[in-house]
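Internal ticket - ligand job 241, fructose -6-phosphate:
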Amino acid sequence: MNIRVFRTPSDAGIYAASMLERVITSSERPVIGLATGETVIPVYDALVNFVRCGLNVSHVTTINLDEYVGLAPDHPQSYHQFMNQYLFSRIGVRMQSTHLPNGVAPDLVAECERYNEVIRNHPIDMQVLGIGVNGHIGFNEPAHTLITGTHVVNLTPETIAMNARFFSRKDDVPRQAITMGIQSILQAKQIMLLAFGEHKADIIYRALKDGIRTDVPASILQLHKDVTVILDRQSAARLGL
Ligand code: F6R
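stdout (structure tokens):
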């Protein structure tokens, strides 16, 4: 694994965006796997600046990791809205080339199958990942077994508590999500894992330096041959670099 440590999340975001630029400019039909959450905001801000400086993204396909079950795409807290707000509406990507799971599909099993088909048809060149404080990637939560393909997941109490900061009422926080599975993530040609802040230092240590364990899902990334880990000094604090 290639580990890079930056002074600030915004420095790290520029580095991450330049890795994305390399993928975007070196392929006729680049496919980028995207994440939501606080961590990726500096990456999207930097990418938007690159686009304003001339980077063409009109040929890019994007595939997001996850969406809450029960939130329609126009719900303010949905990941569809997050992506529109922080990235899609700010750059020239064609909306029909952006993909997220539909959290209000009438048949969620069929929706997972549809999403697997989207991923099969668009092999991911670069997957962007954040990490939960419990080690989740996408919403692949700590468990005895990790699921390979897209699936509906019951979010852990820890994840629900973390997500509550974005909702005005605790009862509104979704209990389930649809997430891309572990095999789909590992099939991406390149992966970047980002983490910022002191609260991620412990899980970054466990994901990168301990063995591979299903109760730390991100540790499975140790098996992938092209992972870049992008950190700030706080999240890297336990690595002894
Ligand atoms: C979101 C996702 C999650 C987040 C993780 C970190 O699409 O897949 O795995 O990346 O929960 O979230 P933040 O960045 O808000 O700390």
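Auto-summary: Strands lie at 2-6, 31-34, 61-64, 66-68, 98-99, 126-129, 151-154, 176-179, 190-195, 227-232. Residues 35-39, 65-66, 130-132, 136-138 surround fructose -6-phosphate (CB under 6 Å).
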